[in-house]
Amino acid sequence: MASYQDAANYQHEISLLGSTSALLGWDQETQMPSGAQAYRAEQLGYLTKLQHSMLIDEKHSEQLRSLAEDSSLSEIEQVNIKEWLKTTHRASAIPSELAVELTETSSHAMMAWQAARKENNFAEFSPWLQKTVSLKLREAEAVGWTEHGEPWDALADEFDPGMTAESVSRVFSPLRSELVTLLDELRGAPVQPDTSFLDQTLAVENQKPLVREFLQALGFNFDRGVMAISTHPFCSGFHPNDVRMTTRYDESNFSDAVTSAMHECGHALYEQGLPLDQAGTPAGAYNGLSIHESQSRLWENQVGRSKGFLEWALPQYKSAGLANTELNKAYSALNIAQPSLIRVEADETTYNLHIMVRFELERLMLNGELAVKDLPDAWNQQYRDYLGVTPPDDASGCLQDVHWSMGAMGYFPTYTLGNLYSAQFYASAKKSIGDLESQYAAGDFKPLLQWLRDNIHSKGRQLSPADLCKQVTGEELSADYLLDYLRNKLRPVYGLA
Amino acid sequence: MASYQDAANYQHEISLLGSTSALLGWDQETQMPSGAQAYRAEQLGYLTKLQHSMLIDEKHSEQLRSLAEDSSLSEIEQVNIKEWLKTTHRASAIPSELAVELTETSSHAMMAWQAARKENNFAEFSPWLQKTVSLKLREAEAVGWTEHGEPWDALADEFDPGMTAESVSRVFSPLRSELVTLLDELRGAPVQPDTSFLDQTLAVENQKPLVREFLQALGFNFDRGVMAISTHPFCSGFHPNDVRMTTRYDESNFSDAVTSAMHECGHALYEQGLPLDQAGTPAGAYNGLSIHESQSRLWENQVGRSKGFLEWALPQYKSAGLANTELNKAYSALNIAQPSLIRVEADETTYNLHIMVRFELERLMLNGELAVKDLPDAWNQQYRDYLGVTPPDDASGCLQDVHWSMGAMGYFPTYTLGNLYSAQFYASAKKSIGDLESQYAAGDFKPLLQWLRDNIHSKGRQLSPADLCKQVTGEELSADYLLDYLRNKLRPVYGLA
């Protein structure tokens, strides 16, 4: 008879390798000298190989299959067995030749993509994207999908358990048409917001203590976490007691340091709030990338762009040396919706339209309904239809993101699902706690954090994201909450009723 | 027939685990949040276990034994096989029960030592030291030593290949009697050096860029290394392209930041200079702790306390805000010899006497010639005899160092052997290059570094430390060079002929 404890010990070792790899990655982005690149790749490659060989061990898989039949296990133990079976299945299903080809192709494709973007030459990237699509299709076929599903689902499931193209479309369709309508409304609005607040400069040395104080107030625990600097802000949790996040500083863009830090802090608060006694097991892990993103967006947007937060923050900006700290101007500047070409520079409203373009096009390519060579035209057409802008070239069009070159297909929607979850969760939190913004104005973020801890963080991966949403909000995920939140905020800013 | 490449690949994986553990250790000392302590111990424990289980693999040992007979291998391949056999032998020789007992005892002993030192109560530590001595004896017996040797040799060999109690005594005996004589001379000298240079304060923010400029000038390559801050300065090399070092800053002790940084930079320059094409193999590794220490001491002392260096450095100190930068005063302050109680605060001359006390006492304990209960009396007697000072209590006597509680016996001499090698190497460098100090005065440290690269760094572990010394200096290690260096420097400072 297989023992749960044996299986758990084995998986714990796999998780130790995983958290060690994550530390190597953290070090690489925050501190590693440039000359160490090749050696770091060797270290990471070896740890990944070790982890993979442990995951595909047939004896362990048998043990898990036998434990899956054991009804005497606790609910949490059953969750873990189910999730471990899922990861071992995925690892075993992908033939090692395919895994090697995927890795090698992505390494070449990333280089080709960089060159293609630089030279604004899609043809240079096109054959590599073509190869990536066919390899990802083979991966999807190896992993499998449900009866009424499609290949995209098999890829997306790795990022967000249970996410399917169908489930994504169900919320994206109404969101898209309503956002397009809202943008039309704003285009003709009587007021166009003043963004001069963002044009101010603030010395980096004055930004740093400010960001630290903000994080402390939000509830980031510096005894169980670290904040550092990196080119691209990110968060990496090795364990609830060891959570690392970064931001970046630019004298002429002080607001970016704060919004980036609040975004990553949202990720970090989630990781610090995962159940300690389940650490290193699926039941104690974050619940997919969409839920993770809901936590970062919630602190960045629902909190960080609110009037209540600004009432508390602006006097501190002033003490740090910012000249213009007028509440209404700051609030308007932080709450605009302005169609643009580049996803990573987009505001919280139009951002979602950028995501939908990517989701729809990658789905079409995987289903064989869009040839890779036709991607630039399809991309530009979608940008015209959804955002009303036309990319002047492919570099600022379909070549702008690294994701596809890395083989990350089925990933983009988690960004917008995060926005949807954040709005829906936030509506529930407000219903339960009451007037959150007056708490922020007094520098009190504890009730919100406690609500998130109780309802989301402490649940780990014990329910699917969809079931968690139902449990927390009483409803399935819907586009309504995000739309209401955006409309209620943007209309007054643009002088609409 | 065993293949060299197979064995090398296997050992390369072991070395990847080793360098990954080193990164975990580096992170722990420089950045890890306090709450992550327990989880980090788990990560490190697992990597150590993996490494150990690979080292004791009987199939691999057989492969190595068969390769040791293969005379068609290159010289470097033969070095690697010999060294790999040595580490696998050591790992296999120590029974796993003993290894576990050693680890557990050291963990308890370190806590008992901390309490005993705090409460100035040797009796609290005594049973743990007793247990440590008997376990280390069992370790020594398991590993073995040569016919005319003794248990101490088996332990010391791990830190300095080939070091024996006999070889250490041979250089320590003349060194001790001559140092005692020199200290007597200085005690009655006409001049007692003015140390007011060291009493100045310098803001930490002004020290930091200074230290960075110094390291840059010495030759530390920031593209292949990192400098950070830690409570206890150290250096850790994961690969010649990824070398990490630390220093520490204190407004009221600016000189400590510089000497610590130059010391660790000496270690770092060695690691950065190891042969790249042998990285991760014994032939490409540092040649034991004594040679490693020779490199740190050489840059800290022979270079950092020289007049030439100060001529270049003092104007920079002045620009950084130091008021008193008079050459002779600075030189005197940095070159005193003053017996004291605490090893880590000792000057470069008396430091060696602290080491000899420890070497002689640990040797006596391991040979059963000194009972652990009699250690405090023996310690105090030796301090009176060698240094002319009497510890007022055990906390500032035999309880001052962590080493024995950690089970590090056979380690202390590497510090003084490092001093001896540094003086002997430096004499050869001067003979070969000429007037080094006028080069330093002009900020030029390249010729010295190149000489060290050519003669020491690039050799890795291809010769034993003793043979390397003969090759580089034409002689066996001797006490004469360190004694000459100290006499020639200290006598003028103390107003002696």
Question: What secondary-structure arrangement, pairings included, does this model have?
Answer:
Two copies of one chain form a homodimer.
Chain A: H1 4-30, H2 37-55, H3 58-67, H4 75-93, H5 96-119, H6 122-143, H7 151-156, H8 165-187, H9 204-218, E1 225-229, E2 235-239, E3 242-247, H10 254-273, H11 288-303, H12 307-319, H13 327-334, H14 351-366, H15 375-387, H16 413-433, H17 436-441, H18 446-455, H19 465-473, H20 480-493
Parallel strand pairs in A: 1-3
Antiparallel strand pairs in A: 2-3
Helix pairs in contact in A: 1-2, 3-4, 5-6, 8-14, 8-20, 9-10, 10-11, 11-16, 12-13, 14-15, 14-16, 16-20
Give an account of the 3D structure.
- Two copies of one chain form a homodimer.
- In chain A, 63% of the residues lie in helices and 3% in strands.
- The first copy, chain A, has helices at 4-30, 37-55, 58-67, 75-93, 96-119, 122-143, 151-156, 165-187, 204-218, 254-273, 288-303, 307-319, 327-334, 351-366, 375-387, 413-433, 436-441, 446-455, 465-473, 480-493, and strands at 225-229, 235-239, 242-247.
- A three-stranded mixed β-sheet of chain A has the order 1-3-2, sandwiched between helices.
- In chain A, helix 1 runs antiparallel to helix 2 (37-55) and helix 8 (165-187) packs parallel to helix 20.
- The mean pLDDT of chain A is 97.
- Chain A binds chain B through residues 13, 16-17, 19-20, 23-24, 27, 31-36, 38-40, 42-43, 46-47, 50, 221-226, 228, 238-239, 241-242, 279, and chain B through 13, 16-17, 19-20, 23-24, 27, 31-36, 38-40, 42-43, 46-47, 50, 221-226, 228, 238-239, 241-242, 279.
